[in-house]
């Protein structure tokens, strides 16, 4: 298949570009932007497992990001004078996040999907609140600062350049893509998709939905924990207001924009939305300020954009910009034969109603 | 003991607001099984509309006598009409097309609508809390050492009146009957000649109008508001609806008052309870979902296939 080979060539070319990019573009702001976008790509890939693959709507995903960040902040700083190395913390924090993922998932297993949404939303609300309230351990609203700088072979990352963090995030994303891709077609991945399409039917086919759902939660949360550690180390600071509800919705918007269940979609969606947030809105604001419209500030419309993406995509392009393979296959059937389309449509409606 | 009774009174009045919001959640969930995340923001929109009406009337302080009754009635009606229309509009534009889509789609849309509304309100009045005029004079009666303010009585009375009216509407009118039928089985209802689309819009309209009334009351009660108010109140009201048994109107009311009481008591008796009240309410939600997912008054239904 030529298309597969072409695709591989494109991916390899992209990989090379990404590897040499920081050495070509010496503008630290650009690398910094890419590193931040990388953290969100990692988050979106994790959420893709929970929402995209398993169809479990998690509205408190930022909580795991917070747990990862705070784990690093507490175990690798002057706060308690504990200094666990960054590389060890990647494992520790993703394990901690995974445990919380299971703890959150367990009580909701028996419940229907939409209750899950509200429970995760509540969880996303109380985790930052708890970090805020436990000020004896977390310094409350001030957060924890001057976290340890990661070092590799004795070279400290420092904070002046974003390049080392860029490479760390690149590696983590590569790992996340590798894991997601392999899981997608594995037994577990197909189990998730069966649950997503019809949980009742999946259970009747003998699928252990408990284990499948909990593993989706745990895995999604652990990606988020990784992102949390990397992001906290990069900023060298954590505070409760970094993990509010709007972060969860931002990541969800990225995923919905790109295409739920699609790995490429998750990456593209997060990149596009990060670009809009960090460049397009501030730059266009500067532009209109320059021509005299000083009371216009596009960055105020950020949440509006998330909202419009969520509503607009769901209404007009539910598969996202880059629909997952399965969705594309479904669409192909429908264009080929209108009778099959009509028949599928009725089945789809009948099954999706409940 | 006085402290406890005082907190019970406070809790009941808080609960009145939650109960009014919970009614909207429970009605919409009852009929189309959608958690309408935008509902909390419709409630905040009610406060904002009330504020606009009061500002338009030039009211900025206490009123007395006929002026008070006239202004309060006018503001409540305006808030209810605006929010009712807003709720119906949201259903028409955002949810209707997705009625047969996979379950996740309308939920995600609802969050999107919620964010759009919040952003609109943020652009309207800015990101900081805004003051709400104290229109209602606030004589406080002290009964056996417990303070009961006029505002608290207003909240509780309004909630009870609204619920009674709603109950009468649902059980004594034709459209109320249509709502119950549609909630029970949409396809069968349609076959019986019920216009399902109209019925669902009316459900959104009524639920949102109640949220509008709650919005006015909360402005008066707290004396301020901000664009993000609906998020927390919505979460608590949803908990109330689940606690009472989602889909059950009396249950929503009961749940609302209970959540108000739980919050007031937690605030009083847990050290730094104010900070933890959200955590407490959320724990209640999780516990109810684990041990009695059908709620206090709800009957447990098998999953529809």
Give the overall average pLDDT of chain B.
88
Total domain units of chain A: 1
- Number of helical elements of chain A: 15
Fraction of residues in helix of chain B: over 70%
Rg estimate of chain B, integer Å: 19 Å
Number of domains of chain B: 1
What is the spatial order of strands in the main beta sheet of chain A?
Answer: 1-2
SSE-based structural type of chain A: mainly alpha
pLDDT averaged residue by residue of chain A: 84
Return the CATH architecture of chain A: Orthogonal Bundle
Largest sheet of chain A: 2 strands, antiparallel
CATH class of chain A: Mainly Alpha
Q: Which band does the percent of strand residues of chain A land in?
A: under 5%
Distance between the termini of chain B: 51 Å
Class by alpha and beta content of chain B: mainly alpha
Described by strand count, sense and barrel closure, the largest sheet of chain B is: 2 strands, antiparallel
User: Shape of chain B from CA axes?
Assistant: globular
Number of strands of chain A: 6
| Broad CATH class of chain B | Mainly Alpha
Description:
The complex is a heterodimer of chains A (354) and B (305). By secondary structure, chain A is mainly α. Chain A has a single domain (28-323), classed as ABC transporter involved in vitamin B12 uptake, BtuC. Chain A has helices at 2-24, 28-53, 62-75, 86-108, 113-133, 135-138, 163-184, 187-197, 199-204, 209-235, 245-258, 263-290, 302-316, 325-336, 338-352, and strands at 76-77, 82-83, 144-145, 151-152, 155-156, 237-238. In chain A, strands 1-2 form a two-stranded antiparallel sheet. A two-stranded antiparallel sheet of chain A has the order 3-6. In chain A, helix 2 (28-53) packs across helix 12 (263-290), helix 3 (62-75) packs antiparallel against helix 4 and helix 11 (245-258) packs across helix 12 (263-290). Chain A starts with a helix and ends with a helix. Residues 333-354 of chain A have low confidence and may be disordered. By secondary structure, chain B is mainly alpha-helical. Chain B has a single domain, classed as ABC transporter involved in vitamin B12 uptake, BtuC, CATH 1.10.3470. Chain B has 11 helices and 4 strands, in the order ααααβββααααβααα. In chain B, the strands form 2 sheets. In chain B, strands 1-4 form a two-stranded antiparallel ribbon. In chain B, helix 2 runs antiparallel to helix 3 (65-95), helix 2 crosses helix 9 (229-244) and helix 9 (229-244) packs across helix 10 (249-269). The interface between A and B is large, with 51 and 48 residues.
